[in-house]
Design a protein that fits this description.
This protein is an alpha/beta fold and 540 residues long. The chain has helices at residues 2-29, 58-61, 94-99, 118-131, 147-152, 175-195, 199-239, 245-261, 268-277, 280-286, 292-312, 345-371, 387-391, 397-406, 423-426, 431-442, 456-461, 468-477, 518-521; strands spanning 79-83, 89-91, 107-111, 134-141, 156-159, 333-336, 379-384, 413-419, 446-449, 482-486, 489-493, 499-503, 510-514. The radius of gyration is 34 Å and the shape is globular.
């Protein structure tokens, strides 16, 4: 009897405990959905009114909206400055980002209105890369913007201009000497292979010899193509029109004849003499049919153009005499073109092209020797400033610049191309040239935009995707700003000075304010001739 009651009490207690849970489950089952009770006549709502939306700062609504911290800005590479909105530190350069896989091409294209800090930004990156072991090569400094910096780095300053220096455009530079070293290395490898007793070792040595011979052959072929490209580019500037196809063929063959005849570096005058001598190979290209008068008629215009490069034209003797200072790629290098007046646009463009061609050729030689194990591997950062001057100097110049830059795809070489606006590229005469010029921007690993006018947005969007907010930001940076009293004098404060938007592909741009160290400030003064000392005299 006692056991029976105890069992009955336990059953009742268990039923009592389960009752609330069952009731709760039943209540949940009877709860209406988000739109009310389902079913005919049950009052289900077809339309649900959206909740009220409110906006506030992250300080005011941080408790309601948990996503108060976005992803941080990259700090990889040269320290640039801080994010203009968050104040977060930012670091970037095309070589570091390329090495880490953040961009596909170690190059950058910089756009921005004058006097908003484009050159200062590039100099800052040049200085940072130099500290990381990357050799800067400034292939044409017109103002000058980079001379003081390169001198401070212990680099080489090469002056070029009428009466200021000479650069022989027919000089193969280090290519000939490098080819000799490569062939000597090939012979040495073959000799070792003949003495080797191990078959595997002999095969490896023979493979190294073949590689060295092939590198020497490629080096000389590239050197020839660069010289041909440079001569035709200069003739284009002289005439403001491209040379004809048969004229290019004449120059090409004449360069081969010069290399066979001379045991020294040829000059423009030597090229003219070969054409005047009328060897059978050139007469065949000119289609003179055995009539010397036809040959003279076919080559008259070509010889006239070459005479203007041989010291008797507006280019003086810049390109007709031996090179004064060969490039030394073991240290930073800048070509100082500041002695050329801004009114001499064609001379500036010709010198820029000559410097770019020489620089790329020398870099290629250095990498070829490194590939063969004859020189240590060095990395370079090439700066091509004032791009618009070369592009506007004559018909076909876009192709010349494009061929130069495409030859500079060797690993370990970064590149910066600088111009003011997309209008510089859109002002070219033909649509095909404009498309090729836009390709300079599209192929760049990163595009850096400073202050730009509103009219540029449509043109820029053809090459780089910009959101409306990003466009508004760039336009606002171009605002002339207000007048404020600084140091007792009225001074205009420009909101976009030293501010840049870094774009990579379709990713959102990163707005950055450039920050300089106290050591750099003295190296970034591009208005030295406007500096007035306390005695009232201009400082030079």
């Amino acid at each position: 009897m006692f056991e029976s009651r105890t069992k009955h009490q336990r059953t009742q207690a268990s039923a009592t405990k389960q009752a609330p849970a069952t009731k709760l489950a039943a209540a949940v089952a009877r709860r209406p959905g988000l739109r009310g009770w389902r079913g005919r006549g049950q009052g289900e709502a077809v339309y649900v009114t959206a909740a009220d939306e409110w906006r506030g700062t992250s300080v005011q609504v941080c408790g309601l909206w948990p996503f108060v911290g976005g992803s941080g800005t990259p700090i990889l590479g040269v320290p640039i400055g801080v994010h203009t909105d968050t104040g977060a530190p930012f670091g970037a350069d095309p070589i570091s980002w390329f090495m880490q896989g953040m961009i596909n091409n170690p190059s950058m294209f910089v756009l921005g209105l004058p006097h908003y800090g484009k050159s200062t930004l590039v100099r800052h990156i040049v200085l940072g890369l130099a500290g990381r072991g990357i050799n800067p090569l400034i292939l044409g400094d017109l103002k000058p913007d980079y001379v003081d910096l390169i001198e401070a780095l212990g680099g080489q300053v090469i002056s070029l201009g009428p009466g200021r220096g000479h650069l022989n455009v027919l000089d193969p530079g280090e290519a000939t000497g490098a080819a000799v070293r490569l062939l000597a290395s090939a012979e040495e490898h073959r000799a070792k292979a003949n003495r080797a007793t191990d078959e595997a070792a002999a095969g490896s040595l023979l493979a190294a010899a073949v590689k060295a011979e092939k590198l020497a052959e490629q080096l000389m072929a590239d050197s020839h193509n660069r010289r041909l490209n440079m001569i035709t580019a200069l003739i284009t500037i002289v005439r403001n029109a491209k040379p004809s196809a048969h004229e290019e063929s004449l120059i090409d063959r004449a360069l081969h004849i010069l290399d066979e005849r001379l045991d020294r570096v040829p000059l423009i005058g030597d090229l003219i003499e070969v054409i005047k001598d009328a060897p059978d190979e050139l007469r065949a290209i000119a289609l003179d049919r055995g009539d010397m008068s036809r040959y003279l008629d076919a080559t008259d215009q070509l010889r006239q153009s070459l005479y203007s490069l041989d010291g008797s034209g507006r280019f003086s003797d810049m390109f007709s005499k031996p090179t004064d200072q060969p490039m030394d790629l073991t240290k930073p290098v800048v070509f100082d073109l500041s002695g050329i007046s801004d009114t001499q646009r064609d001379i500036q463009a010709a010198c820029l092209l000559a410097c770019w061609s020489t620089g790329f050729a020398t870099v290629q030689v250095a990498h070829t020797l490194a590939d063969a194990g004859l020189e240590p591997r060095r990395n370079y950062f090439v700066v091509m400033d004032e791009l618009w001057r070369a592009l506007r100097s004559g018909e076909g110049m876009v192709d010349r610049v494009d061929s130069l830059t495409r030859l500079n795809r060797t690993e370990g070489v970064g590149q910066a191309m600088i111009t003011h606006t997309m209008s510089d590229l859109e002002a070219l005469p033909t649509e095909s040239e404009r498309m090729k010029a836009r390709g300079f921007v599209e192929r760049s690993g990163m595009v850096v935009c400073g202050a730009l006018p509103g009219a540029e947005m449509e043109k820029l969007n053809k090459a780089v995707t910009l959101s409306r907010a990003e466009q508004s930001r760039l336009i606002s940076w171009a605002d002339p700003g207000s007048w404020t009293d600084v140091g007792g004098s009225r001074k205009r404060v420009r909101p976009g000075l030293g501010k840049f938007l870094f774009k990579v592909g379709g990713r959102p741009g990163i707005p950055v304010a450039l920050k300089l160290t106290s050591v750099e400030e003295s190296l970034h003064d591009t208005n030295k001739r406007w500096t007035i000392n306390r005695s009232g005299e201009g400082e030079n």
